[in-house]
Amino acid sequence: MKFLVVGGAGYIGSHMVKHLLLAGHQVVVADVMPAHSGVAWVNLDIADRPALDALFASHRFDAVFHFASFIQVGESVSDPGKYYQNNVAATLCLLQAMIQADVRQLVFSSTAAVYGDPQYVPIDEAHPKAPINPYGRSKWMVEQMLEDFDRAYGLRSVCLRYFNAAGADPDGMLGECHEPETHLIPLILQAASGRRPAVTVFGRDYSTLDGTCIRDYIHVNDLASAHALAIDYLQAGGASTAFNLGNGEGFSVEQVIAAARSVTGRSINVIEAGRRAGDPPSLVADASKARQILGWHTQYALLDDILGHAWKWEQQYPWR
Ligand code: UFG
């Protein structure tokens, strides 16, 4: 099949592109950053409707994967316009171009942030949606738009609500690289490699086993395999829906740092700080729906594998 991967140059998108190419599909990446070498890339912002129309006119895509969004919760609070413009308005532009081009299948990168402060854990898809920041609201708005687009235009979609995407391709050629980096695991590993003096722990006064926040870390290649299954589901005529993607096991910040010390064999210095605004104490997925309906199985559920692959990437690319 032939797929358009919007945001295919980024962290999760680049792993998806590799997965699709290995499965023998044709892929075109649309991104404002260059895709990896050897991948067909169009320098395109999805807010640019004429450029999108031209792209859809020159390829017959079977479906679209949409990874292009801003993801920093704190920035979304200080600059919400940037998030509503890129994550909502530009996505609307993409959806309208898809309808015009008669491309009616989409896999959308959503987030556990649509749930807000959890009322219970593990969180299933029926959990109330009450995002607590503009980032989460922007993703929930798109999910709601997609429901309307299915009803009105027959655009079927799968929204994949990622918990904490982490890890790297085991071959060490792809990995996580945000600028600025705000995510826990890359920051820990940068402290392990000496690129940072220390990692900061945001809060030790949560009502968790050791007082630090608990998250459900899910390997980026397991996210990619779920996207491929989501396309199979849509191709088979599946109805629009959403799935949580996580391992169903939570690790505290302290546990992740301890595991990283063991995986890397390095000492990792820690700086204590207060809570980071907007951090819920515990986010753990109930992903049984994805297992039951998509037949999804994770390959790298162990935190040591997630950290080991990310560490290989960190060491292979010390120049980043
Ligand atoms: N943390 C630290 N120190 C750091 C960075 C993070 O202690 O330097 C802590 C955070 O407080 C949090 C945990 O580590 O408790 C994980 O933080 P991340 O920034 O790695 O990830 P988040 O859980 O904040 O966010 C992730 C995604 C978001 C998404 C959210 C919910 O990055 O895009 O999950 O789905 F919105």
TrEMBL record:
Q: Which Gene Ontology MF annotations are present?
A: UDP-glucose 4-epimerase activity
Reactions mediated catalytically = UDP-alpha-D-glucose = UDP-alpha-D-galactose
Under the heading InterPro entries, the entry gives: Epimerase_deHydtase (IPR001509), NAD(P)-bd_dom_sf (IPR036291), UDP_G4E (IPR005886)
CDD domains attached to this UniProt entry: UDP_G4E_1_SDR_e
Q: Does the keyword Transit peptide apply?
A: no
Checking PANTHER family in the record gives: UDP-ARABINOSE 4-EPIMERASE 1, UDP-GLUCOSE 4-EPIMERASE
Relate the assembly described in the record. Answer: Homodimer.
Q: Protein name, please?
A: UDP-glucose 4-epimerase
Which organism's genome codes for this protein? Pseudomonas shirazensis
Gene behind the chain: galE
